[in-house]
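Researcher: Next sequence.
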Amino acid sequence: MAPFSILTKSSTFIKTLNPNSFRTISTFKYLCQEPQIAEPLVPSSSPTPLPPNPSSGSPLYQQDNWRTANPKSNLGFLGHSLPALSTLQAPSAEIQAYSQTLDGTQLMNVFADLMTSQKWSDMIQLFEFWIMSLDSNGKPNKPDVNLYNHYLNANLMAKASPGELLDLVAKMEDYKVLPNTASFNIVLKAMYHAGEAKAADKLLQRMLQTGKESMPDEKSYELVTEMLFGVNQIDDAFKYIDMTLSSGNVVSMKVFNECVDRCLKLRRLDTLTSIIGRCKKMDQNKALCPKWHMCNNILDFALQEDNNKLAFYGLEFLARWIVHDEAARPPIYLSVDEGLIMSTLGTAGRTFDKTLIDAAWAILRKSLRGKRASAETYLGKISAYSSLGNLQRAFATLHEFESAYGGVSNTEVAENLFSPFTSLSPLVMACSKNGFETLDSVYFQLENLSHAEQPYKSVAALNCIILGCANIWDLDRAYQTFESISSSFGLTPDIHSYNALMCAFGKLKKTPEASKVFEHLTGLGVKPNATSYVMLVNAHLINRDTKAAVSVVDEMVNAGHIPSKQLLKDIRRRCVREFDNESDDQVEAFARKFGIRMGPESRQNMLFNLSYSSNYA
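Model: Next structure:
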């Protein structure tokens, strides 16, 4: 018992020194330490089993074993296995521990959750810890290009600079991963936000030289083209648009609108025409259409340069907008300015483009929605078809014009609308272009139409033929056509018919006959117009009868008409050549009366005073 007494005394001694420093292990003062003989083991028929393997994922264990390849709670460290990062005091350590439990597929799933919550810094840390961890085989984790692109995108969203992203792309070689197009596009996005157009241009060139895996796509071209437009490197931007189309990629609407705007501002209409034409030939780009106001600008600029092809594209874009907005709910009714259509018809006539005429007229009818077009538009269409030599369509348009404006109550306005000397002059020139052959063809067609089931008879059309015969100095055809107005067509000649006949007589110096025609029409009660007096004055001037010409001008003034400046200059020129100073003074008096500035005729006098000789200097 001596050892037990020693232990008891030592324990009491320690307590007296510091009673709160130690606590007894047991509530009993004395522990029995004498050895006991063990009972012999009796084998049992059902021995107690061992606890389950920790790697089996048994619910007895609170967390999964580190060897578990696919834990059930692998929703990321946002799931039940780890608390949320916002509640952790040391998130890096927790992320590092969690990264060791994931393979590539599971990491992609975790990235999906993190991207949804926009936790870019967590994605970056998780990837960097994962790349330094070992997989289930004890080998370092190796990412694929898609996984690495998610890492690059997380850095982009975390406001990484383009230089930092380029360094990360360069590190892909350390993991034997080749960057693809998506990898470089992430870098291009960073350059786009930083405004580094020159660096983006060089990177795109590198992509073109690298190979198929990193060939630029439409997003690559779009980013670089927008940057180049932003720094006014227009030629380089157009070069990449051309490469986009050549490679069969889609041109974005933003780039297309910017291209249209820059081409119009720089007046590079041929370039714009080429780009639009190439887009229309591609299924993936033929639906591109600029904004409404830009379509009007395209048409306006094309008409200024008489670019018929670009004008047609502009009309096509406008037609798309009209159809698109009419199909909207509620519908929106867009209309094209009629002045633009008139200018388009003029361009079509000068460029001999029948397709442009038809397109312009279709757009106009769609815009008017049943209303009547203006007289000037009809005359523009007649002039365009006349320039093309399409007399059948020209006379058909004349028929529509007469149906729309034939019943105008204002006689003077109606006379000017259907005058072969002014408004219908292009049609007259087209009829007399090939001489009597064309004139006879038109006349016989009009004669056949007059006997059709729905007869068409037009004095204005026949007046064009009469004046056309006068232009080719064919008095007989002119007179026969004049007589056929009443005999064959059953119509009554109007003032333009008589004026055209007077013109035919006057050109052949048959002034008495022209005077008789003038007297005949006044005898019938037809009031002569200004053109009637002009034709009679011209007939007298051809015969060098200046006094008679001045007397006709006097009658013209008394009838309430004002002589034109050109008419007075023609009379004055003839007076100078005939040395008729008295008539010249009367012409000057007319000019002062009506405030017409005649101006000098020094250039004409130089030609008149030339001394022609067969001797050379």
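Model: The first helix runs from residue 2 to 17. The CA atoms of residues 204 and 216 lie 7 Å apart.
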